[in-house]
């Protein structure tokens, strides 16, 4: 089995079988990390361009490691150092990359839909590494991989996503993916940070986490940004912390095997307390490791690899 | 010069004509209408030009009371010359241009510039609309009276609302004495701020900031209340939502208020934004299928008086950008008529007479123009339409811009001849 499209633009566009394929493929890649030589040859001779219009450390490094461990050549372009700063349009940048025969373009952009523009302009495989408030599919995949690895299944699990759902591409990708895999998804946050009609995506909305805390299998905590306070979306970070912050106290009623996740970077003491982040339920650092394996799987599969193994 | 149009089905809603008659034009005026048998040998001489309109519909020249010509200031996007040619290509003989140019048409000199340029370079009649406030800033009234004397036919800060209700009140009161309509762009800027499409499920999925329908409806309600307070002449531009239609329907029972919508609002829904094609980025935004239904009901029962193009040219380089930063607006002069026939007349939402009324007598009445009819003695502005002509919209336009979401779509019912002041400016679908 192979992926149907040349691009990975969002989990909205993948079906359950394709998501399964990516998760299954990520597993052997993760096992590779325990070896002394972590590099395999499938992408030798391929060029992966990391086109980052937004500052990002963990996603960029994760993709870079994933590509390098697959033996691809990696090129980093960030908005501050390239012709982007001189006002070149996205389409022109795309055409330049096309002329340079890039095989993959991994794009991070502050505006929703930017990867779509690339995908219809050039023939390289486009991987969305986060576009505006639209999707962050590899984050959704690594979150699901982490759940699957820890719980042995995704179907039937109850997952709460807590925080600024409105501005979160992580939330959107998780909602699409988890729903397709049969999980039950709740979104929890201030009413001002819940996007309109999100229940039509197949989620239930809660404003009070304590109502559902005892039944959850997974809690995925989103970063809250201080700028949102200035837009009058909530009165203060202190109030946010009091009502939505995840603390040991709040988790007292939770299941013992609740998974605590966070896509990072964390605001300790605001959306998550340090002791929860470091606690036994937290899989936050493991998410980072899994991110590399999942991104290797995505690159490998988009390069035409199939489920029969890493031969090439 | 004499011109006779023969054998066409003549539809003139103002004069309640809908039958097969011939029309004689002499020196730019309509001089005789009647069955072929009523014409005497002297009416048609050897030098008379005959236009055969067999199997076609002949209507008063169409009016578009909401066009952006971009001149002065953005002649790279459109000029008065190119915009009026696009109008003629689309069957329009008269257009009203919005004042949001650079500089804003907020003074007599701006009005004179438009009228002079149009008389020299235009192929269709151009009626300028002046701004309500100086620089469209919403702060101080522009010299409305002086602009009226210079030739404006309405006032509008189109593209922006007048956010201050007191200034809007004054505008309605003041313009009343010149019988000038105040054309309101209904948008509460605080609610719409940063939005790029209709707020709803689609905006949530696409991760694009939404503009709630209430941003429009609140201002529709406010302006209706102010029209009631002032007895001013209010015309609401580009109406797009169900509740706006309902508010206006209710208001019309008590006060005089008129409104318009544009073809894209009854032809496309917010779902078209999927894929992030910036030619779906329009302000107000494309709404839902339910709103389309409400607009159709409003068009059918007369709540919506007229249909306008809201022709808003932008260059490819401006539109080929990320959705958030591309400008709002699409061109419309060359697609308005076929969209009306394809999506309203063919679907029996409007009959032919109703559709033509919304492009002729109704807009003429709103702005007090002596246009939009085939009355004897009136200017010989006419449009000949082939209801059966099917064409796929290509990416070549007479307009200098081609920002249209309708490219690639097959439509039915196109203008074939446009006559302005007795002069044939478009014939067999081609500009003369």
Explain the overall architecture:
The complex is a heterodimer of chains A (312) and B (432). Chain A has 312 residues and is an alpha/beta fold. Chain A is 37% helix and 15% strand. In chain A, helix 2 links the parallel strand 1 (47-52) and strand 2. Chain A is globular. The two termini of chain A are 15 Å apart. Chain B has 432 residues and is of the alpha/beta class. Helix content of chain B is 29%, strand content 23%. Chain B contains 14 helices and 19 strands. In chain B, the strands form 4 sheets. In chain B, strands 1, 2, 3, 4, 5, 16, 17, 18 and 19 form a 9-stranded mixed sheet that branches. A 5-stranded parallel sheet of chain B has the order 9-10-13-14-15. The model of chain B has no long low-confidence stretch (mean pLDDT 97). Classes of the chains: A alpha/beta (312), B alpha/beta (432). The interface between A and B is medium-sized, with 24 and 20 residues.
């Amino acid at each position: 089995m192979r992926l149907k499209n040349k691009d990975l633009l969002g989990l909205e566009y993948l079906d359950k079988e394709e998501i399964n394929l990516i998760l299954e493929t990520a597993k052997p890649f993760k096992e590779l990390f325990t070896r002394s030589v972590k590099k395999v040859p499938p992408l030798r001779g391929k060029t992966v361009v990391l086109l980052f219009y937004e500052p990002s450390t963990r996603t960029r490094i994760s993709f870079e490691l994933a590509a390098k461990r697959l033996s691809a050549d990696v090129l980093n372009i960030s908005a501050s150092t390239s012709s982007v700063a001189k006002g070149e349009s996205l389409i022109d940048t795309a055409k330049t990359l096309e002329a340079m025969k890039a095989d993959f373009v991994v794009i991070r952009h502050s505006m929703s839909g930017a990867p779509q523009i690339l995908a219809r302009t050039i023939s390289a495989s486009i991987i969305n590494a986060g576009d505006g408030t639209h999707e962050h599919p590899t984050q959704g995949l690594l979150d699901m991989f982490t759940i699957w690895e820890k719980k042995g299944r995704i179907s039937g699990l109850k997952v709460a996503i807590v925080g600024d759902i409105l501005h979160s591409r992580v939330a959107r990708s998780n909602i699409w993916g988890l729903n397709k895999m049969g999980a039950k998804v709740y979104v929890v946050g201030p009413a001002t940070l819940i996007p309109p009609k999100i229940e039509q995506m197949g989620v239930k909305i809660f404003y009070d986490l304590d109502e559902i805390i005892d039944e959850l299998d997974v809690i995925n905590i989103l970063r809250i940004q201080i700028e949102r306070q200035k837009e009058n979306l909530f009165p203060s970070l202190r109030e946010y912390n009091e009502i939505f912050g995840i603390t040991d106290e709040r988790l007292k009623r939770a299941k013992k095997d609740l998974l605590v996740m966070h896509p990072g970077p964390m605001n300790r003491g605001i959306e998550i307390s340090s002791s929860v982040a470091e606690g036994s339920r937290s899989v936050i650092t493991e998410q980072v490791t899994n991110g590399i394996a999942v991104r290797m799987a995505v690159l490998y599969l988009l390069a035409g690899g199939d489920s029969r193994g890493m031969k090439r | 010069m004499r011109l006779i149009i023969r054998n066409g089905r003549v539809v003139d809603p103002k004069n309640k004509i809908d039958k097969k008659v011939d029309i004689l034009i002499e020196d730019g005026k309509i001089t005789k209408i009647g069955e072929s048998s009523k014409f005497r040998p002297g009416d048609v001489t050897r030098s008379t030009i005959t236009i055969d309109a067999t199997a076609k519909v002949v209507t008063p020249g169409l009016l578009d009371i909401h066009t952006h010509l971009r001149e002065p200031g953005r002649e790279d996007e459109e000029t008065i010359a190119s915009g009026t040619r696009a109008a003629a290509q689309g069957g329009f003989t008269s257009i009203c241009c919005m004042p949001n140019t650079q500089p804003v048409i907020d003074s007599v000199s701006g009005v004179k510039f438009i009228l002079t340029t149009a008389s020299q370079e235009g192929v269709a009649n151009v009626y300028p609309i002046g701004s309500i406030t100086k620089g469209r800033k919403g702060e101080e009234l522009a010299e409305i009276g002086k602009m009226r004397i210079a030739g404006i036919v309405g006032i509008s800060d189109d593209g922006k609302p007048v956010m201050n209700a007191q200034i809007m009140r004054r505008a309605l009161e003041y313009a009343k004495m010149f019988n000038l309509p105040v054309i309101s762009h209904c948008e509460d800027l605080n609610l719409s701020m940063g939005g790029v499409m209709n707020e709803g499920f689609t905006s949530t999925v696409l991760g694009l900031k939404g503009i709630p329908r209430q941003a429009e409806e609140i201002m529709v309600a406010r302006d209706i209340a102010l029209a009631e307070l002032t007895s001013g002449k209010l015309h609401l531009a580009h109406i797009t939502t169900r509740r706006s239609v309902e508010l206006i329907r209710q208001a019309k029972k008590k006060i005089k208020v008129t409104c318009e919508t544009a073809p894209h609002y009854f032809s496309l829904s917010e779902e078209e934004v999927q894929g992030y094609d910036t030619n779906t980025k329009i302000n107000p935004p494309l709404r839902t299928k339910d709103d389309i239904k409400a607009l159709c009901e409003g068009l059918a029962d007369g709540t919506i008086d007229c249909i306008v193009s809201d022709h808003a040219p932008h260059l490819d380089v401006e539109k080929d950008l990320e959705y958030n930063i591309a400008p709002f607006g699409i061109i419309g002069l060359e697609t308005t008529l076929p969209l009306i026939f394809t999506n309203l007349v063919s679907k029996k939402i409007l009959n032919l007479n109703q559709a033509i009324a919304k492009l002729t007598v109704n807009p003429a009445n709103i702005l007090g123009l002596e246009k939009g009819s085939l009355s004897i003695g009136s200017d010989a502005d006419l449009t000949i339409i082939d209801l059966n002509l099917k064409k796929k919209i290509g990416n070549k336009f007479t307009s200098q811009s081609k920002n249209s979401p309708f490219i690639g779509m097959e439509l039915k019912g196109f203008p074939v001849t446009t006559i302005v002041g007795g002069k044939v400016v478009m014939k067999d679908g081609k500009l003369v």
